């Protein structure tokens, strides 16, 4: 099952069923491979079923298994399920790590659940896990332009290199808030650090100017 790609998620599940019929022990690595295939194929119900079977079979709910399930829920736009998986992990001995928190923040961020994203970031820090650039980028996508700008300032203040994803996310947020001037200023500052802007940042900047009806700048 571990050698099958995500396009063959159905075949991977068939292999697992055959293993169960034959009484072959399914280890965590096998389940992780199948869950990863289901996640990338956006088959979140199957991922959750595998997670449930791993617990019923006595396998610990490992961080990797739970992270795969959260990612699957994120791809399927089912952020409440992702948040619930994380909540259960926090109540168990297999506590979440930074990767798991980032997956949950990304799921809630994609749904623009800003309040929940902030709660997750506070819980993350309460577990002695510092948010990284991935965490901040995911949180920015859920925030209004004021909060996104503040998160960007915090990230820069920590000396963390800000990538194109983070800048593009903040630029898009500024565009939604009709703050095209700030979007241009952010782009100008980025050009001083990197002469050739990333395509994602340029697209976000064009969108910000268009939403501000600054057609001559587009």
Automatic annotation (TrEMBL):
It holds the Pfam family PPR_3. The keyword Repeat applies. InterPro entries: PPR_rpt (IPR002885), TPR-like_helical_dom_sf (IPR011990). The keyword Repeat applies. Keywords: Repeat. This is Pentacotripeptide-repeat region of PRORP domain-containing protein.
């Amino acid at each position: 099952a571990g050698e099958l790609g995500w396009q063959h998620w159905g075949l991977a599940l068939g292999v697992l069923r055959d293993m169960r019929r034959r009484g072959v022990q399914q280890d965590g690595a096998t389940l992780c491979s199948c869950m990863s295939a289901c996640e990338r194929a956006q088959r979140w119900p199957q991922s959750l079923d595998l997670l449930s079977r791993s617990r019923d079979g006595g396998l610990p709910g490992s961080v990797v298994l739970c992270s795969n399930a959260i990612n699957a829920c994120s791809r399927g736009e089912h952020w409440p399920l992702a948040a619930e998986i994380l909540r259960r992990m926090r109540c168990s001995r297999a506590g979440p790590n930074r990767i798991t928190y980032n997956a949950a923040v990304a799921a809630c961020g994609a749904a623009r659940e800003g309040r929940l994203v902030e709660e997750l970031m506070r819980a993350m820090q309460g577990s002695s896990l510092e948010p990284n650039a991935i965490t901040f980028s995911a949180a920015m996508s859920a925030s209004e332009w004021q909060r996104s700008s503040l998160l960007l300032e915090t990230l820069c203040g920590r000396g963390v290199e800000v990538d194109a994803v983070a800048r593009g996310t903040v630029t898009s947020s500024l565009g939604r808030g009709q703050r095209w001037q700030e979007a241009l200023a952010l782009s100008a500052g980025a050009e001083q650090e990197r002469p050739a802007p990333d395509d994602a940042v340029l697209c976000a900047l064009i969108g910000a100017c268009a939403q501000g009806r600054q057609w001559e700048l587009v």
